[in-house]
Amino acid sequence: MTRWVVLLLAPIAAAQTYNIQDLGTFAGGSVSQGNAINQGGQVVGYARFANFNAHGFLWTERSGMEDLGAIPPQSNFSSAQAINSWGDIAGYSTSGPEADYHAVLWMQGRLLDLGSGEATGINDERVVVGFANSHAFLWTQATGTIDLGTLPGGNYSQAFAVNQRGDIAGYSDCANYSGCAFLRPRSEEMQALPVLEGGYSASANAINDRGDVAGGSSTSTVSSHPVIWIDGSVEDLGVLANQGWGSAFGINNYRQVVGWSGYLAFIWSQEEGMQNLNDLIPANSGWQLQIATGINDGGQITGQGTINGQLHGFLLTPTSNRPKTAP
Question: pLDDT by residue (tens digit) across 245-266?
Fold first, then answer.
């Protein structure tokens, strides 16, 4: 007697795909990179001129790429590293005859020199974070620059990101001479975040408004893997096929994480795991996406890739409004 079994399979949802937009470069230049994106889709980064000098830029859909300038003279270098919902931008610029780096804040059409160092993050309260004189710092208009110190036993630290609550994520060396990722909850002390099993160092590069942190951790095989820290626990996000290493540089409030793996840009989510962003853009685009640096809650992504043999910043926009699972 033959029995037939009919399997009713639910349709498999297609992966999210993206339209891609070239952010361009300054006149005569051939290199740009998107470093961060806010919830409104404004992108900041840096672009080079024909003389290979570079300035920070603000890119918008309406106006395209705007030169943010630098600490005078205009021949100085600058880079825009972070942007908040109001369009305030944090970054750094060379200054003075020794070409020292100074943290800067572009706000309401003005460039504010915050002193020696580099600014790497900003939130909607205009809390700026970065690093100067070998230590992570926090800056506000009310307090000026506050040295955040290091983890116990450390000598060097960098703050890379701050969320709307004022939680700060970054890197510090540690008592055992390894590098540690840290989380500094608002108005509290730095806390070392765990590394992957067998690893010895890590860096926290991005943080969302829930306090989830993304970055990289070494593994038992020494290579770095992208990771996410949730409630103090570390999760290995893995790497792309045939790529042995990677790190994460951006995370949104839906726990979508972006970064690179073997010089290929990726997106990771709890629902779909690790995906090569090059597989999710039009096949005939001509792009090779190398690094993804930021993602907003709308799923828009910025970073850098190659197009026509040049390194350009890009903006990816989802082709559909697929529902995302809130954490």
Answer: 999 999 999 999 999 999 999 9
Give residue 323's pLDDT.
60
Q: Is the CB of residue 144 less than 8 Å from the CB of residue 177?
A: no
Helices (H) and strands (E) in the chain, counts: 0, 28
| Residue 320 pLDDT | 87
Where b means 16+ CB within 10 Å and e means fewer, 80-98 reads bbbbbeeebbbbbbbbeee
Q: In the chain, which residues have pLDDT < 70? A: 1-13, 177, 322-327
Name the 3-class secondary structure at 277: helix
Phi, psi of 279 (to 5 degrees): -85, -5
Instruction: Confirm if 108 and 124 have CB atoms less than 8 A apart.
Output: no
Alpha-carbon Rg for the chain, nearest whole angstrom, is 20
Task: Count other Cβ atoms within 10 Å, centred on residue 233.
Answer: 9
Predicted local confidence at residue 322, as pLDDT: 65
Are 308 and 300 contacting, i.e. CB atoms less than 8 angstroms apart?
A: no
Assign a CATH topology to domain 150-280. Neuraminidase (2.120.10)
Strand 246-251 relative to strand 301-307, pairing = unpaired
Is residue 206 within 8 A of residue 169, CB to CB? The reply is yes
Domain ranges (residues) in the chain: 150-280
Closest CA to 255 of 163, 323, 196, 327: 327
